[in-house]
Amino acid sequence: MNIIISNGTDTPIFKQIKNSIKQSICNNNLKEGEALPSVRSLATDLKISFLTVKRAYDELEEEGFIKTVPGKGSFIAPKNLELIKEEKLKEIEELTSKIYNIAKISNISNDDIKEIFKIIFEEEK
Predict the structure, then answer these.
(1) How far apart are CA 25 and CA 27, in angstroms?
(2) pTM score, two decimals?
(3) What is the pLDDT of residue 76?
């Protein structure tokens, strides 16, 4: 598993780990039932505290992305397609909000933004 930690961001390390694993699950790079590295192993590889990795794993489990079996480790949970769809919708909402803010600051009209989306969608056909 390839997780890259960036110190040049405001995003906490545990969230970077969590987001990286979620992204890998959503992109099918990590498959249902696949074992994740142990908390200590991943912490050693990333040269960070095991508590940071544990927090990421705990949140992933709370959100239904992984399942931890005591004494055996953590595994990718069966995909909940509705959960993945919600994650993607949340991501789209955040990006759309950024687009809106950029347009507002730059005095770009709603019609101009709609035209951009119209062109993008027409290219998909």
Answers:
(1) 5
(2) 0.70
(3) 95
